[in-house]
TrEMBL record:
<dbReference type="GO" id="GO:0032993">
    <property type="term" value="C:protein-DNA complex"/>
</dbReference>
<dbReference type="InterPro" id="IPR039420">
    <property type="entry name" value="WalR-like"/>
</dbReference>
<dbReference type="Pfam" id="PF00486">
    <property type="entry name" value="Trans_reg_C"/>
</dbReference>
<keyword id="KW-0805">Transcription regulation</keyword>
<feature type="domain" description="OmpR/PhoB-type">
    <location>
        <begin position="118"/>
        <end position="214"/>
    </location>
</feature>
<dbReference type="InterPro" id="IPR036388">
    <property type="entry name" value="WH-like_DNA-bd_sf"/>
</dbReference>
<dbReference type="InterPro" id="IPR049170">
    <property type="entry name" value="GlnR_N"/>
</dbReference>
<keyword id="KW-0010">Activator</keyword>
<dbReference type="GO" id="GO:0005829">
    <property type="term" value="C:cytosol"/>
</dbReference>
<keyword id="KW-0597">Phosphoprotein</keyword>
<feature type="DNA-binding region" description="OmpR/PhoB-type">
    <location>
        <begin position="118"/>
        <end position="214"/>
    </location>
</feature>
<keyword id="KW-0804">Transcription</keyword>
<dbReference type="InterPro" id="IPR001867">
    <property type="entry name" value="OmpR/PhoB-type_DNA-bd"/>
</dbReference>
<dbReference type="Pfam" id="PF21695">
    <property type="entry name" value="GlnR_1st"/>
</dbReference>
<dbReference type="GO" id="GO:0000976">
    <property type="term" value="F:transcription cis-regulatory region binding"/>
</dbReference>
<keyword id="KW-0238">DNA-binding</keyword>
<dbReference type="InterPro" id="IPR016032">
    <property type="entry name" value="Sig_transdc_resp-reg_C-effctor"/>
</dbReference>
């Protein structure tokens, strides 16, 4: 593979295992902006953060726009807490990575993703795109927290069904959640407020739980709280 390493020292010092592999490795100063045309000539970009994680982050952020070449950041274990999705990297390597591990990660970068994004959930005017983490109500974007999004996503994906609070806790919060079922009521109330005039999409079935887009029952059986 043709690799470009953004570093201020010999790549063999940052990632010794790489020196034992038969790849063509070129270097460029960490502080130098890499043009899109140059990056496109390489199979992958290595960003050296072994000496200065902050400079590596700046280099990664500078690569995010207009450059599709996969990038791997090299970070020591003590700097791993600084790594976030904002860096825009495809892989991470520790300086102590073995040649076998380095080779595996490089091969994985070459393999195109075969999975397709999950289909959007559409029900009663609500459209939820899980791949982009967006939810719309009749075209209007909904500003939801993560758990509100997850709860609406689950309910809208199962229209007409009624779930107990315990079921919703298990499906949305997970089986390891130790809070009470009251948190379900709180999130439902917040969701209804954000649905506005369409708050009735989430119905309360007395003694059971909540459902989405159900046919209205008589007032003695169904209420909205």
């Amino acid at each position: 593979m043709q690799l470009l390493c953004l570093t201020d020292r010999d790549p063999a010092e940052s990632l010794p295992g790489l020196d034992l592999l038969p790849h063509d490795v070129r270097t460029s100063p960490l502080s130098l902006r890499v043009p899109e045309t140059l990056a496109a000539r390489y199979d992958a970009l290595l960003i050296d953060g072994t000496l200065d994680a902050r400079r590596a982050r700046a280099a990664c952020m500078g690569l995010k726009t207009g450059i599709d070449t996969p990038r791997i950041v090299i970070l020591p274990e003590v700097a791993l807490t600084a790594l976030t999705v904002e860096w825009g990297v495809s892989e991470l390597l520790l300086p102590t990575a073995s040649p076998a591990e380095i080779e595996l990660r490089l091969r994985l970068l070459e393999q195109p993703a075969t999975h397709s994004p999950p289909p959007a959930v559409q029900s009663a005017g609500v459209v939820i795109d899980e791949s982009n983490f967006t939810a719309r109500l009749f075209g209007r974007p909904l500003d939801l927290t993560y758990k509100e999004f997850e709860l609406l996503h689950f309910l809208a994906a199962n229209p007409g069904r009624v779930f107990t609070r315990d079921q919703l806790l298990s499906e949305v919060w997970g089986t390891d959640y130790f809070g009470g079922t009251r948190t379900v009521d709180v999130h439902v109330r917040r969701l209804r407020a954000k649905l506005g005039d369409h708050e009735g999409l989430i119905s309360t079935v007395r003694g059971v739980g909540y459902g989405f887009a159900r046919a209205r029952l008589d007032d003695d059986e169904e209420t909205f709280t």
